[in-house]
Records
---
Amino acid sequence: MIASLLLALLPIVLLITLGALLRQREFVAATFWPQAERLGYYVLLPALFFHGLATARLDGVPVTAMALTLVTSTVVVAAVVVLMRRWVKADDPAFTSVFQGGVRFNNYVGVSMAVGLLGTQGVALAAVANASIVPTVNVLCVLVFARYGHGAEFSLRAVVQQLLRNPLLMACVAGMSARMLNLTLPAGIEPFLKTLGQASLPLGLLCVGAALDFSSVRRWLHPVSMASLAKFALMPLCTVVACHLFGLTGVAAMAALLFQTLPTASSSYVMARQLGGDAPLMAGIIASQTVLAGIAMPLLLPGLAPWLN
């Protein structure tokens, strides 16, 4: 399994490295990267999830057990991170970045690894994972920003609006609805959506590499370490326990563990800027976890896999 995992990681690492080099060498204008990330987030990745769910065979996928496993482990880790607030040596806005680093995940890396390890079934499992975790994480993060963010105010209406405007969540809901209603995509639309979805992965990973920023890692060593401990130790362990609690085994359990050991999302930086968090610290956490994931995942996934049966 380790060899398969490393082979699945290799193209991801190479694409992220290429993105970092292209940004460093200024091969394209700096304004290209935010627009490329926007294109991937609002168009390409939703197309991938919608197509994957609408055309997937979910008969053998324990959707309910997988969703319960992912939601439960995410909520438990979020609660523990909040309880650890007093031990985080940082101000309140910085704590929001620690929280995001502990619970959010990078979609592009997750889908790429799911496809590399699990084949075509990986897209469907990735879409189920996103449909479960995306709304959970967004609600939790908005609540934490409302409590600890600088100048942020909580509003139930704002939370609902944010969920309804989330393109990944809406794509998952639409795809699952189409599958449940046994709707068949038109002959010309199906390959169109498939092609769009395939384009999301390389472009998204290039954007991940371009967004890496190590400038604040040393300055924020303690909060970066706390966020990474929650992400790469607490979250995987809670996921394994939740798998046993809800009877999730096999490929679906491995997919759940995969998504819960991913580095935090590069979009966390944008959220930190918009909702009163600590954006420079968030950039350091994103960069650190992206590198640490290359070490942690080859150890965690094979090491914890026997406990999923």
Note: Residues 99 and 133 are 15 Å apart (CA to CA).
---
Amino acid sequence: MERIPVIAIFDIGKTNKKLFLFDEQYRIVFEESVRLEETTDEDGDACEDLPLLRRFVQDTMASILEREEFLVKAVNFSAYGASMVFIDETGRPLTPLYSYLKPYPASLHSSFYDQNGGEAAFSLQSASPILGSLNSGMQLYRLKYQQPALFRKTKYALHLPQYISFLLTGTACSDITSIGCHTNLWDFRRQQYHSWTETEGVRVKLAPLQRCDKVQPGTYLAGTGLHDSSAALIPYLVQFGEPFLLISTGTWCISLNPFNDSPLTDEELRQDCLCYLSFQGRPVKASRLFAGRDHELQVARIAEHFNKKETDFHTMPFDDALVQKLQSRYPDDAFFSQRELPAFETAEEAYHQLMIDIIAQQRHATGLVLHGDKVKNIFVDGGFSKNALYMNLLAAAFPEMTVFAADVAQASAIGAAMVIHEAWNRHPIPGNLVSLTGYTRKSVH
């Protein structure tokens, strides 16, 4: 039997850890997914179980290499950001993988920003709101002052995608998509590491920057790994030449505009906008909305009140007449959490109002990163792309745009495969990796 040439992609999310094998036409020919139990750090805060994660990566890769039906030509990695692994000279982790939700010490917060020009000025330089541990460079700053002995032992602080790569290659490196993702490490005005990384002795703890398309030779070629949000953008940047905006929906709904290169303003920062760096090293302006999590909480609330199953809402059809009725009754934008459920006659009515409220917030958040008249198309991927209410209401909210539900199987994993395409794949990239379903404006207003 002829072995199928494949690339293996580890796609490491907060909840699901996945391995995909893609053939040379980017079809998934194998996948494995696990959920790993969390553990706690020394303060009792929840965090990733790093030994469990290491075993999953190494054992799964070993088992795939033993399979006779596949010829693994390359491997690459996509993983969530804002998470650092501090390794010593031997590559051994020195600390737990601290959660980006871990509370940040107020005293360290104050001393850092006081020494670096204040929060407002620093945010403009780093193109990020003040996010505590989510500014992952602040984790390295905390290690220096709270655990100085471990800081001195630290050879490198690796972002999670690069640590996963290190597990299989033994080569430590940094990647621009991770460094450029609200880390406080990168100066977007000067397009280089921020000066504080030198003055605090942090710069030497960051492994050498490597290009996203660089591979390590060996039994198979190995990439350096990418931040998952930047990886998910790659199939769109490769397939579509016209300017677009992507709303990537999940727990967070992130509006990404790769065609807005204007510097972040104070007002945009105050409204939770930030910049990513694409795999090409170019700024991508983005805004964030916690809509997926809010949707989950409010659906549970509606389901309990009306004695429904939460799954009943997954495929609810869009009712234009009901939307118009609700908009005439509740003309003002509001958060659904502030609405009283007895005011609604049915679960369908309550759910339509929830989505109206979410789209009002989405319209504002997305509007923050639309710039000029370049962008004519909005693509939506992730969970809400399959939600008829979300898509129809979004089309109505942006009548001057063409709104598409985009379907690309495992976008971040495919992006990680595509970025090293030339190294492992003898065929051209297929032109149909992203399929689109258009939504036109209804009579919603």
Note: The chain has a mean pLDDT of 94.
